[in-house]
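Internal ticket - ligand job 267, S-adenosyl-L-homocysteine:
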Amino acid sequence: MDAPAVFTDAEFYQRSFDPREYLKEFYSLSDSQGQPNTFLMQNLRSLFEMFSLEGVRGDTLIDVGCGPTIYQLLSACERFREIIALDYTDQNRRELEKWLKNEAGAFDWSPVVKYVCELEGDREKWAEKEEKLRKKVREVLKCDVTKANPTDPVSLPPADCLVSTLCLEAACKDLATFRSALRNVGALVKPGGHLVMVTVLGETYYAFNKQVFSCLRLERHMVEEAVEGAGFDVKFSEVQKCPADDVRADCESVLSLVARKRASITG
Ligand code: SAH
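stdout (structure tokens):
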């Protein structure tokens, strides 16, 4: 599979991104041959580690580009009182709400939740964690990270923390857009608050269900510089190799990053 010749924009996501197929392809703990999903397990471990760092806690957490997934909130929900999830596409927000409302036909996250509970020290607590997360997600709203106010016309009060996994590299057509998107979403965080990111590096596309989506090819320094440029100090940054020979994407590695917002852009 080759990278799409053109950038797949937000409207392409709205038309062509099938949340059920995405979840089936990327969020099972093991594939049809019984092979473990090392990409997911690695990211769950990183998220656990980042949401255990000192100071990464508070009242409100905003998830930017949540898609139809909850894995990125499983360790996070232990540290924040209230969560707001944002995504561009209607079908992804709808799929997430299905799980939040425990509706019939919602994706079964329990193997993933059990894995995270095991990391956190008690696999038996998985049902409790699911309930906790369902209660904490207060709203699921539309957003566009390329807008100065991503949730326009809604204005959200600045949050204590922002988490974003695998979104900005998909949503931005070039580095300038990526940098400005980080400033846009960075403005949703209070001074002294945190940004927690999981970003693929060296990827130009990912594919599932015979659809190919473009990805901005990033290097570690580009992400770190964009984060600094959005008014944050990088506190934690770790690169891990992507599993080799994955036909679904050409990702080289994954960057896990935590940054803290400065008191002011110049300060
Ligand atoms: N966070 C999830 C989903 C990542 S897929 C995960 O970790 O798996 C990329 C997501 O970015 C999709 O849900 C898509 O709807 C969203 N997206 C694409 N363009 C966007 C934009 N301009 N603004 C906000 N979200 C966007």
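Auto-summary: The longest strand covers residues 189-201. Residues 66 and 87 are 6 Å apart (CA to CA).
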